[in-house]
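Checklist before submission:
- one chain only
- standard amino acids only
- sequence pasted in full

Submission:
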Amino acid sequence: MTIQKYSKAGKDAYRYVTWYVDEDGSRKQKKASGFPSKKKAVDACKTFCKKYENNVCKPKKCSKDLFSVLYKEYEKEHINRLKPSTADLNKRLFRIHILPYFGNMYMAEITPKVVNSFIKEMERSVSDKTGRPFSEDYRKDVLSQAKGFIRYCWDNSLGNMDRLPFNRETKVAIHKKSNKDFWTVEEFSQFANYWKLKDERKYALFYVLYYTGLRKGELLGLQKQDFDLEKGELKIAREYQEVSGKMIIQDGTLKTISSYRTVPLVDRVVEVMKEYFDHYQFADTDRVFPYKYGRINDWLDDGIRETEVKRITPHEFRHSFATLLNKLQIDPKTAQTVLGHSNIKTTLEIYTHITDEGILDVKEKLNSVAV
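Returned file contents:
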């Protein structure tokens, strides 16, 4: 028996949901709503249950109600209709994290306690590739996919569930974020100099990444025609995607409308790219950095290990760029345009990184006016 509270005509109302086995032996769900109080809903449910005595609310396990079986339908009806890169990511999250945990469970066995245990398991897990814990954003994505599937089953009366095993409070744990997940210009210079001596192709790649704040897919989707080195501008018009191990490059695939933008190039980036194009020949529509996602991570790890700068991720180059804009007192609205954020809130969340130098500057300014 499950009692649910909802709003009806501006007033609180209650409904009950229960399961029973009818005269033919079929397991069915019974719902009734419109009760003015929780007690009346409970009493009504008990009255209904008496009609079927011991046949009410008995769980019945059926293979078609297995999480893994219903997921196949969900993948076909929902996931496969998404953008290829999004569908590929969602399938990967199910394959790596969700199906190994829930796959052999019947939907009716998935309780709030089970979901919370899954959340804790994700907090303890580490990436096989990096050996580091999964980020909060990554864990949020995994939980969102799991909840989305369970909600799909509930909304379509699949799996013989008598209630949703989560609510608005079912979330991943949010830990205090460090203000150090970015590189200063000095830290980047130390890292870049290693690649300048070792491989100018990687040097150029990381230089563009640091001083443009591009997303990794945008960087790997760049073509020679996107660079206007005379004007010192870079046009962002497409992104690189990996779908089921295959590379996809096409216009019109950026994250949002705001992602289509022109980014200014500092003089040093212009110099680096002119040297790059002098040494390596590209047609206008050739990819300038013809690599896969994983290669950037590998090269980043190599450079960090050799230079002993603090560890950041490729996406945190973007944070570094936003922090640099903030330090140079570029207004948030302009930064939003350059970064390609559709929502100013996203810009402001990244824009709040504070350096030790900035804290000292605040102290000095306060001292100048204190009486």
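Reviewer check: The mean pLDDT is 83.
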